[in-house]
Design brief:
Strand content: 15-25%
Order of helices and strands: EHEHEHEHHHEHEHEHHHEHEH
Shape: globular
Largest sheet: 8 strands, parallel, barrel
Structural class: alpha/beta
């Protein structure tokens, strides 16, 4: 086990459940963040996605401001902003403003993927592919805009200069691991859905990490799916909403999150499909006792500095309960 405590955080997509309005969805997002703050979570990250009717976090920086305004101590940020969709100058201005409003609480996690389909990516930014290839340079531009030294430049993000906004590199491949190590930045791996390259990426990041002004030693965050309930059976029942979400991803039917059903033989079969099984490899579903054993094993294997949990289920009260139980697990394991 690691000598220091393993922090625990939340990654949220502001998922829209069936028969819920966007206003209800956003209110529930804040409700969950307030509960997470009470339960000792370190950060609450929102992920940028577009053109999905079941995801409400498309205007990510706006939602971050809403959550930060309604909470007091928990860090709030992006997990992540998909940088090729944006001008680095605008992102620096947005997050510089957020960090001035909510000092020492705003994180900027940056990813390279579009967070959407090709057509939508091109509608967001016609030169998306070029911007994606330029990700390392665009990252450097953001760092420049946040620096005090940029005050003498002709192009400035004045609201960002000298403002403390930690930058995290998000990724699901060895390419992102190399970049995070080279830049000496913390690294968050999307192992809650992209499981194939996890161990290789973490190995590369740790072995090739170069200390920077931002970070002296490697810092790893790993994503996991977590659904905890009072019994294994209840957790399995709640997980049927997640399975239906995954089915929608593979079939192109991205509907609102469906209410849970009983775990049928068909859904069990879907879970065992090679692609689904691989995608949900680091999913810990069950009672507190069951999930505690699974999480303990994952912590020992990954040696992650922080776990960021994703709980994609239908009802906000079930989500809050799951995250409360997960917080109990983490406190006991630490």
């Amino acid at each position: 086990m690691k000598k220091s405590k393993t922090l625990y955080s939340i990654l949220d997509l502001a998922l829209v459940s069936k028969n819920h309005t966007l206003k209800q969805t956003f209110n529930n997002t804040l409700k969950l963040a307030k509960s997470a703050e009470k339960s000792g979570y370190t950060r609450y990250w929102l992920a940028e996605h577009h053109n999905s009717e079941n995801i409400g976090s498309s205007a990510t920086s706006v939602l971050i401001g809403y959550v930060a305004q309604g909470t007091e101590t928990i860090r709030v940020g992006s997990g992540g902003i998909m940088l090729p969709n944006h001008s680095p100058l605008i992102i620096a201005e947005q997050f510089g403003t957020l960090a001035s409003l909510y000092p020492n609480r705003i994180d900027l996690g940056l990813g390279r993927a579009p967070g959407t389909d090709r057509e939508t990516a091109e509608a967001i930014r016609s030169d998306f592919m070029q911007a994606a290839h330029a990700f390392p340079d665009e990252l450097e531009s953001i760092q420049t805009y946040f620096s005090v030294e940029n005050k003498t430049s002709k192009v400035r993000a004045t609201v960002a200069e000298g403002v403390d906004v930690p930058i995290y590199i998000l990724g699901s491949s060895t390419e992102s691991a190399n970049l995070a190590a080279k830049k000496g930045l913390p690294y968050a791996f999307a192992s809650h859905f992209a499981t194939t390259h996890l161990w290789n990426a973490l190995d590369i990041y740790r072995k090739t990490f170069k200390p920077s002004e931002d970070l002296k030693e490697p810092y790893v965050i790993t994503g996991i799916n977590v659904i905890v309930a009072d019994t294994d059976e209840e957790a399995q029942r709640l997980s049927t909403s997640l399975i239906q979400l995954i089915l929608g991803l593979f079939t192109g039917k991205r509907e609102a999150v469906q209410p849970p059903t009983e775990m049928s033989d068909y859904l069990k079969e879907v879970m065992q499909h090679p692609q689904v099984h691989q995608m949900l490899k680091y999913s810990f579903i069950g009672s507190k006792e069951t999930v505690k054993k699974q999480v303990k094993a994952f912590m020992e294997q990954s040696q992650a500095d922080e776990l960021i949990a994703v709980t994609n289920i239908y009802d906000i009260n079930d989500r809050i309960r799951s995250y409360e139980l997960f917080a109990e697990i983490m406190k006991e394991l630490n």
